[in-house]
Amino acid sequence: MKDYEIKLELLFYGVRLSNTVKKEFITSGKVELFNDYITCTGMMISFNNQYVTCKINENSKYIVDFVNNQICLKKDNNIIKKIIIIEPAKYMINNELNRYGQPYSDYVVIHKFRARIQPINGCAYDCKFCNDNLYEYQKYPIELLDDALQKAIKENEIKNLLISAGTPKRNNIDYEYQNNVYKYFGKKYDNLPIDIMTAPRGIDTNKNKDSYIKFFKMLKVLNLADLSVNLELYNEEARRKYIPLKNYYSRKEYLDYMQLATEYLGNNIVKSGIIVGLENEGDTLKAIEELAKRKIRVILSPYIPFNNIGKSPTPEVMKRILLRAKEITNKYDSTLSSKYIWCRHNEISF
């Protein structure tokens, strides 16, 4: 099996932990698991430049074991890979608190070399496959976000930043707060590439080209690595069903918005996530083609069942979609998957 095929199987089956690993690492506290968004929860491992977050599944055919002083991945009782377990940052493991008694991990979460800044707790949207909207909506003070980021950088090797978390409510006060977050971190940390994840939006709540362009011009001055605007789904019925509030912007408006962003920010700076498994393969491939021909970087994410909705795509389906996505992006001289390999831990990627 190729490394990427093993990764696809791990995304689907997850891993179970041997008794040795449970006793020597988990119970003893030497190894901690991630407890984050539904797409970032479990054991994050790496092998041969592959990164993958695996759910813990006691019925998995893949076992994480400790053999001859080496952590290994086994299948059918055979060692197939030597692996490295990627742990959360120490301040996350120890639930360290800031001067106000709040966990630093409320504000900044680390996945290997990436620090994710979370300006908003909760989310204004109600996407049916996401657990972020279960939390109380609140905007965090920029001072506390920066305090947590400084701690993260001091104690860890950080190579890129992601400003993400919940979508702001559609009012000019919350939009201006988010603008200030972008400007603050973009200026102060101009030595680090910055990814921004947002729904389509302008400099304010006006839904027009002039507002969009002002927003893109503001982002242009930042050391921008990626602007993530996730289409999620292509099928119109699926969009109405699974992302009702996000569908305030139609599929066409999403695509037009990203194309306009590309004109101002450059090819393959804008990227868009597609969820594989919630709609038929034909619609997923149409989404990939619409993005690729606009020079928008394509990100493929496997659907992870939530709220008793749907099933995960099988490794065979993921592989089929991935191979076709490669053909399509090559056809349009576009790109596939996140730029940084450690950011691909929850992606369908090579």
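That was protein one. Protein two is written in the same sequence-then-structure order:
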Amino acid sequence: MTYEVEAGPLTTDEAEWIFRIESDMTTPEVDISVWKSDGSILELRNCISLRYNFYGGWRNVKLLSSGECRKIRDCCILKVNDLEVFL
């Protein structure tokens, strides 16, 4: 079974993977791994997305455990809930 998208047909496995990523992003709390400017990886656990700027390519996230808010660039997101992100 395949699904048509603008880039071409997807296999069932690819469609299931995309569905899994989208469903993880719609859950209220997520774990995010982000590259920092010095090359190290920052692990943000149990956070929610507050604001998203499509044209700027950044989002504000809030860590629920500490209440801290952070501004992160989408291109620096490495993983969401331990699933690698390919931009």
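The beta strands are 2-5, 8-11, 30-35, 41-53, 58-63, 69-73, 77-80, 83-84. Keep this in mind for the problem set.
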